[in-house]
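Let's study my pick:
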Amino acid sequence: MEPLADVIALLRPRAAGTKMIQGAGRWGVRYSRMDYAGFGLVVAGGCWLAVDGDEPHRLARGDFVLMPAVPGFTITSDLEVEPLPLDAYEAVARGASDVRHGDAEREAEFKQLGGYFQLEPGNRGLFAGLLPGLVHIRAADPAAERLVRMIDLITDEALANRPGRDLVIDRLIEVLLVEALRFHAASAGVAARPGLLAGLADPLLARALRQLHGDVARGWSVDALARQAGLSRSAFSERFNRKVGVPPMQYLIEWRIALAKAMLQRDAPPLEAVAAAVGYQSASAFSTAFRREVGSSPSHFMRAAAA
């Protein structure tokens, strides 16, 4: 499989809590820290979005934003408005009812589909590691033509009142997530945050990453991966560490452990089977590596996941 497809399959993202957020007049709200992966798709009007620690971003119709996890963020009609504080977790707990901000007597000038993605909890950190704190894909970007077609489908569904609307929107949002990740990987430049997407944007590293993901149980070495990339060992190690953010062997270990965690959560197979599937020669060697990376034994991890 492709590395990105591997990650998506491992995380099994499901759109949840999708709601229509509307605003009229002057309004603003500030959401507290949220560890969920949040998203927003502007279907009418525009707004300002400011994630803590970042400059405000102007969002226009058709713009899509993705936040893997945020310390807090503010969304306003204009930057002069004093935002009202909201608890993000309470908002999630209230469910998917639509939200209205500003002047309730006026027709909404701003509409945004917002919500979050449920991810497999054992590997949730993988998603945050893929992306910067905010991904902003502008509908006006000529390179985003494929995404814009998907956004138009979602917008049409959101503004209509057809049977099964919410189910269709959730499934389309899930596809949009994959498209956004693919777009971000393809457009990642030299200044991109280190991670898998930056590695996949490098044609030479992408060859090595595809081979690694295609046969994770193989006895990989830095030399073997460097040959796949067509680079010397030293050039490959430097390039991989700079683009992906970790040395090649550490990336391999982390990916093996991520796969193992998913297996232990879903099926609770024998440790010997898990060890063999992810490239360890014995259950003991696997357990030692798992404890070093996760901080607990595989058995303890399985019990905690089942609780």
About this structure: The chain has a mean pLDDT of 87.
